[in-house]
Design a protein that fits this description.
The protein has helices at residues 2-31, 57-65, 117-126, 132-170, and strands at residues 78-84, 89-94, 99-104, 110-115. By secondary structure, it is of the alpha+beta class. Strands 1-2-3-4 form a four-stranded antiparallel β-sheet, covered by helices on one side. Helix 1 runs antiparallel to helix 3 (117-126) and helix 1 packs across helix 4 (132-170). It is elongated and about 85 Å long.
Length: 171
């Protein structure tokens, strides 16, 4: 059993280390994303107003699609719209190139056009950047491998110590 655990550790540790390094670095960047504008654009300041004064989604589509932005040409180019009622902001995210346009929810004024690198980093973190099969299968296997490596690593570390202790006790 000891030899089998050593063999599996030897041949799979490099692959697992690369994947875990990817998860660790991207996870760190996601933790600090609000501290760096190049990772995630800051939420802009709006003129304020109540929810009753917000422009309609139809008007928002007109504003965003009229920006002559290469990632916002058709209504299907819009992936999602984040509504920030407390800040009176719409954050419109594109299906392409991680683009974002922030619009004042009351006046309809475009406040920001930026790239959301945090969305790319998130896809790297969960494996979906490399393909859905990586997200659905490889990351699950990596989770099990991490548990396996923890258990077998403790065994490999503890086994020689217990063996030495038994030998000393026999003398």
């Amino acid at each position: 059993m000891y030899k089998f655990f050593r063999l599996t550790h030897k041949w799979t540790r490099i692959i697992l280390a690369v994947v875990l390094l990817n998860i660790a670095v991207s996870g760190f960047l996601l933790i600090v994303k609000k501290d760096f504008d190049w990772i995630q654009p800051p939420t802009q300041k709006s003129e304020g107003g109540s929810v009753a004064q917000f422009i309609t989604i139809e008007k928002l589509y007109e504003i965003v699609l009229s920006q002559d932005h290469p990632d916002f040409k058709l209504p299907t180019d819009i992936d999602r719209i984040d509504v920030r009622p407390g800040k009176a902001i719409y954050k419109v995210k594109s299906e392409h190139n991680y683009s974002e346009i922030q619009v004042d929810a009351v006046s309809g004024k475009v406040l920001s056009r930026a790239t959301r690198n945090s969305d790319l980093i998130e896809k790297l973190h969960d494996g979906s950047f490399y393909g859905n099969w990586v997200h659905d299968w490889v990351m699950v296997l990596v989770s099990f491998a991490l548990v396996y490596f923890t258990g077998t690593g403790l065994y490999l570390w503890l086994f020689p110590k217990l063996r030495r202790k038994r030998r000393r006790g026999l003398r």
